Every structure is written in C-alpha cells, then in structure tokens.
C-alpha cells in the first residue's frame, strides 16, 4: 500500500482549473475530491456488458468486465484490476474508519475503495468497490 509521499508524480497532471473544465461537477467531486456517488445510482452498478473500464479522467485502462461481479452493494464491483500497476492503493482514515483507497495510477484520481474478506467467493477475495462516475466502459465490440 502506498503513502502519499511514495505514490510519485502522476503521468497525467493537470491544474485544478483544467480538471474542473474537463470534468462535470459530479465527476470532479468524486475523481478529484475523493467523493462518493450515492449507492444504486451509478450507470455501471448492474451493467455486465463485456468490455474495458477506463478512468473517466485520463482514459487509462483499469478493469476488464471478466472481473466484474454482482455484489449488490450499490456500486460496480470488481475482484481485480486488469493489471496491478493500473491502480494505486493507499490507506484512507477519513470518516472515522480505516479503509484502502483506490486511485488511478496514471492520473491519481480517486476511484473508490477495495475491501477484503467479505465472503463474496471471488478468486482474490477482494471487492474493488468503484464509483461509476470514475469509470468509462468501452464495450468489447468497440475495443476489438
């Protein structure tokens, strides 16, 4: 797990004004201010289309549909990123609890959190609980 000091400089770096111009207010609140969308409201919560999920801020690949599963938690869930170096994990002590935050490794945008040992029976025993607004799905037919 990375600390703020050890995650380095993002490969895609923009000023706050540039991010605000590029992203909708909701996207900005989640991706750049570590907000959370309301459960069961995101466009990808119950979507199981084959394809690639990329970062809505920078377009970097994050997850593939093969690792998406129905967690019924209100947010899209994956059991693994498409490659370990696509995401950064760091401790998050906000809101009076200790969690593991998931960031895009390319632009350091907030994506959600990862949880372990919840009994979902996934190959990794992990649930990457992502905000839909942090992701963009490219269906398989357009990625082939």
Automatic annotation (TrEMBL):
GO molecular function, one term: peptide-methionine (R)-S-oxide reductase activity
Source organism, top-level taxon: Bacteria
Domain MsrB residue range list: 16-140
InterPro entries: Met_Sox_Rdtase_MsrB, Met_Sox_Rdtase_MsrB_dom, Mss4-like_sf
Keywords per UniProt: Oxidoreductase
Catalytic reaction annotation: L-methionyl-[protein] + [thioredoxin]-disulfide + H2O = L-methionyl-(R)-S-oxide-[protein] + [thioredoxin]-dithiol
EC number(s) recorded for this UniProt protein: 1.8.4.12
Pfam family for this entry, one: SelR
Annotated segments matching region Disordered: 1-20
Enzyme category, top tier: oxidoreductase
Name listed for the protein in its UniProt record: peptide-methionine (R)-S-oxide reductase
Organism: Actinomycetospora chibensis
Top-level taxonomy: Bacteria, Bacillati, Actinomycetota, Actinomycetes, Pseudonocardiales
